[in-house]
Amino acid sequence: MSVITISREFSCGANEVAALVAQELGYEVVDKELLSHIAAEAQVSEAEVERFDEAGMTSLERFLRVLVRFGVPEDALSWSPGPLRESPLWLPPPEQWKREGSRLLDHEECLRFTQVVLRKLAQRGRVILIGRAGMMVLRDMPALHVRLVAPLQWRVQRLAQMEAMPLEKARQKVLAEDKRRAEYVRQFYKVDWNDPTLYHLTLNVAELGIETTAHLIVTAARRFLGIAS
């Protein structure tokens, strides 16, 4: 079994780094591909999984989830305030609930399926898992945990250039994505994703560059995981 997990700040080149590492080691990279694995495990659509991917619950959603846990009267199942109809906590009509209740995803169910899939992929080995708190899910398994970071302005400029968007819009997106991912890890795993003790390596992609960052991960993986050169 040989696994590398990569936790990453948004727009720091994690996918490019992972691709180079995978090419060198003959590994598979799993990032957005994880959605299809989770969808198959949960027997729902990828679009349904994507609604909860690396996303925490808002205060309102957490409050309503408590109400659901304590039971919801059948005649209330079809009730949802307007804004909630577009949220992950929308409750379906009673007929749909009875027919599909066990297959209707929510944050906690998606989290559970995510953990199951990550562990199955890890057991298969020779895989690089990006995001989804892999460093926590696989804490008890042999794996190299890597954290990729870069200065905010570098990431903003990189995103603006790659997606041809104004700098201010790029900045807002970077900050929003970082906040979303950090909140996901904090809410469900009770840790700070910036805590360096969660990782074996923390690498600054802006200073090292994509290729050097990948080279350092490959070197560490071969020594730490005992991968033959």
Would you kindly provide a written description of the structure presented here, covering whatever features stand out?
- There is one protein chain.
- This protein is an alpha/beta fold.
- It contains 11 helices and 5 strands.
- The longest helix has 23 residues.
- The relative contact order is 0.21.
Structural class, from secondary structure content? Answer: alpha/beta
Alpha plus pi helix count: 11
Helix/strand order, N-terminal first? EHEHHHHHEHEHHEHH
What is the CATH architecture annotation of the largest domain? 3-Layer(aba) Sandwich
- Work out the helicity level: 40-55%
Global morphology? globular
Count of DSSP E strands? 5
Which topology of the largest domain does CATH recognise? Rossmann fold
Quaternary state of the chains: single chain
Largest sheet: 5 strands, parallel
Strand coverage percent: 5-15%
End-to-end distance: 16 Å
| Average of the residue pLDDT scores | 82
Question: Whole-number radius of gyration?
Answer: 19 Å
Feature tags:
229 residues; alpha/beta; Rossmann fold; 2 domains; five-stranded parallel β-sheet; 11 helices; 5 strands; 52% helix; globular
